[in-house]
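Attaching the record inline, Q. Sequence:
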Amino acid sequence: MALDYFAPGVYVEEVDRGSRPIDGVSLSVAGFVGFTEDVRGDAELFKPMMITNWSQYQEYFAKPGSDGFTDFNAYLPFAVQGWFANGGGRCWVVSIGTKLPGSPQPPAEETASRLLTSGGKPSLMLNLKLPEAADGTLALPASIGRLTVSVLESEPKPLPEDAPEGTDPPLNTGEFFTVIVRNGDQILERYDNLTMNPECETAVADYVLTALETSEYVSIANISQSGQPLSRRPANGSYEIAPPPYIARLEHLARDVQGQRSDKTGIQGIFEVDEVAMVACPDLMRAYEEGLMDLDQVHGVMEMLVSNCENSFPGPAFRMVVLDPPPVKPGKNENRAVAPELQKPQDVAAWLSLFNRRSMYGALYYPWIKVPNPRNGGRPIMVPPSGHMMGLWCRTDQTRGIFKAPANDTPRGVIGLAYETNMREQELLNPLGINCIRNFASYNRGLKVWGARTLVEPDNVQWRYISVRRLISYIEKSIEMGTQWVVFEPNDQDLWARVNRTVSNFLERLWREGALFGGSPAEAFYVKCDGELNTHETMMLGRLYVEVGVCPVRPAEFVIFRISQWAPGQ
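Structure, as predicted:
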């Protein structure tokens, strides 16, 4: 509004009187932590990387031309693939390594980049040199990154200035080449006038191994076969030189998994990504299977996952963690398609009692699932179900809405179960908050997710269901994000009315979509923002209070038909 009017005339002013609509936030973004085959491109070890499809996962976390899985059967690739197969969209992935902790360091020949001749025969082998840290150990590969080595055309060295007049320059036989070492667009080193001939005169060219011996970044080896220097010359092109894999010491595994909030690494790094709303760490089970972590260490990581989901200061807590039940005992099992060490219903019930951590922000699925393993000719392998289940959550959000329980639906990409639970066995697990995946072959319905409960205390029925917890989190987070405009507005009756309209319109939209129970908006929710809540004292403190009550729909978990005989006329 203009402060003063001095000249006669018509003045047009824009006045914001309406309410601003609240746009619902997305709670369908997942975060994964585990082992990968490689870490390439823009991805960094221990740092969250956003992935939107399986091809992009392969681009960042698989070797070139690979299927994306690992030779040691890490569970993270299966979880991410299951996430996308079941309808998951955007997710964030943290790689905690490309080898199991304690594994032997692979030989240089295995991690080297091989340069080939134009005829496809071996020429040179390049490795990245790791500088020594202050304590004398090798630097972490993640801190070095990948380098690019380019091979270009070159020629013999020019004649020296003091060469006798009439001396002919060396003949260019085509064997000469240039090697350039780059870090991105930055040229680190350049070597011209190189040859594969170790007996070449230095006045004509430099033998490639002798020239690169002083390189600070790469080490080189001649793997060419017999022949003339021209036939052994590496073909022109660019080659990626990767550092050797990071192999953690056993005592560092738990630290690497948990990460640091300040560095945004590990699990802590996932929780620094604001949009992540569901979290899983499937390779926690892989580490336990291999005896790299004991059960107490596994419980410690699980406790941290649950606690981080419960704490989301300054906003409302909105994340959930999907936990995986561990095997009965650690140890390698060659035939993991059979997996005899996997838990039976009484085992998982006993384990949950031992873990003894309850939370409305956690969920647990049983049993492990059977999926094809590309690294074993497509034969089945048992994997934790968390990734597939979170993908099903996302699919339900898109097809039905966040208020629909993610159950009575078919998990995609699953060809079997580690254990086929029956009705009586689920009667043991369901009251404990353990959601079963069951085979309904006798009903010709296939595999179904047959549970939708959180890990809250069994007597806390208010937060028993995943859909209710996520719906309330959706409402809380959406209102928080959609009412930021209220901050520093004049705290008067006009503001109260605008806030009331804004929140009421949002909740009425949810009611019409079927998320809230009631025959009318008044039965489904209420919004209160008036002088009773906002007294003179609270206004002097700069506070605006809004009270919201909602009646969420709850899943029909138990469907009961009461049938009796009826005789006409009675």
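The mean pLDDT is 90. Residues 61 and 274 are 22 Å apart (CA to CA).

More tomorrow.
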